[in-house]
Amino acid sequence: MSFIALVLIIAHPVILFILRPERLALLNFIDAPWRARFAAISTYSLIALIVMALWRVKLKINYETWHYTHIILAVLAIGGGLLHTIAWGFYLDAPLKRALWTGLAILWCCLLIYTRIVRPFLMLRKPYQVIATRHERGGSTTLVMQPIGHKGFPFVPGQFGWLNVWGSPFKLTSHPFSFSSSAEIAKESIEMTIQDAGDYTRKIRNVTEGKRVYIDGPYGAFTVGNPADMHVLIAGGIGITPMMSIIRTFADNGDKRPIILIYGNKNWDVITFREELEALSGRINLQVIHVLEHPPKNWTGETGIITSELIERYIPAPYEQHEYFICGPNRMMDEIEKTLSALHVPLAKYHSERYHFV
């Protein structure tokens, strides 16, 4: 959607300059009238917003810095666009046009008020408390959180929430993490398993029992739902967390539909939930295939990385009848998506969760 918006917005001045070449003078920001400056501010802000969102990691921008910058750029993009619309006058010279733009402006203001004031206020009244922390393999920490004075909220396995550990819900920056617990026990407690991957996540392992936190959720469409004869879960590293929610929910429901989990890791010692996955294999129809880049001596399992050849070897036909969930490093996910497309698996049958955006 952001790419489509960017193309349409850039097409607007391009078409204008083609039809009216003399208007190229408006690109001179210093001499241009304010109505043109507002348009330039809006366009440049949107371009910067998209570039920083896509390449935040490569640009080595701190997450919190990026989040604040993202908010500022979004306000400039929308505010500049509205001021350009008002100042130019052409877009408001008829009653229907005025009604349209006035309605859009009111809608955006209402969304902002709901997102930044109403929803945080509702969250403030429904806090959670950390009742346990577990240090997992692979440098990850699981927070077990219990609702305080309320019934919590239900979620579908595979979804995520925005977690705020330090500060109130009105704080501008929070962090998204997948739920790793079973959806069947959501009213009792919620778990998030977080890998030590940065300044914020590094502090998670020091969170103590009794800490009050806030969770905004649930969000996401990385969920079980389509009719399928089997579920194929393909995970790399900490990409196992939404998969664990799916597997644990199947176990608590007594769901006997077959699950194939192909799980890639660096070595045997860093496999998060390794022992629990082995135990769950005895409770439900779960087949776990470990793929190790650096296997121990006498390892007889799969080695290297998850490839299309490996997938085709373990997943039975007909491929289009299964439902697929993919979460892990970009290289792995790109390879798997190409493989599923080549096997004529419909887009509706496979879901991808890419953590690198955040």
Strand order of the largest sheet: 4-3-6-1-2-5
Low-confidence runs: none
Integer-rounded radius of gyration? 24 Å
Mean pLDDT, rounded to whole units? 90
Helix content range of the residues, please?
25-40%
Could you please describe the fold and organization of this structure?
The chain has 358 residues and is α/β, with parallel strands linked by helices. The protein has helices spanning 2-19, 34-54, 63-88, 95-124, 199-204, 240-253, 274-280, 308-314, 330-342; strands spanning 128-136, 140-147, 160-164, 175-178, 190-195, 212-219, 231-236, 259-265, 286-292, 302-303, 323-327, 350-353. It contains nine helices and twelve strands. The strands form two sheets. A six-stranded antiparallel β-sheet has the order 4-3-6-1-2-5. Strand 8 (259-265), helix 7 (274-280) and strand 9 form a beta-alpha-beta unit. Helix 1 (2-19) runs antiparallel to helix 2 and helix 2 (34-54) packs antiparallel against helix 3.
Secondary structure elements and pairings:
Layout: H1 2-19, H2 34-54, H3 63-88, H4 95-124, E1 128-136, E2 140-147, E3 160-164, E4 175-178, E5 190-195, H5 199-204, E6 212-219, E7 231-236, H6 240-253, E8 259-265, H7 274-280, E9 286-292, E10 302-303, H8 308-314, E11 323-327, H9 330-342, E12 350-353
Parallel strand pairs: 7-8, 7-11, 8-9, 9-10, 11-12
Antiparallel strand pairs: 1-2, 1-6, 2-5, 3-4, 3-6
Helix pairs in contact: 1-2, 2-3
Question: What is this structure, in a nutshell?
Answer:
The protein is α/β, with parallel strands linked by helices and 358 residues long.
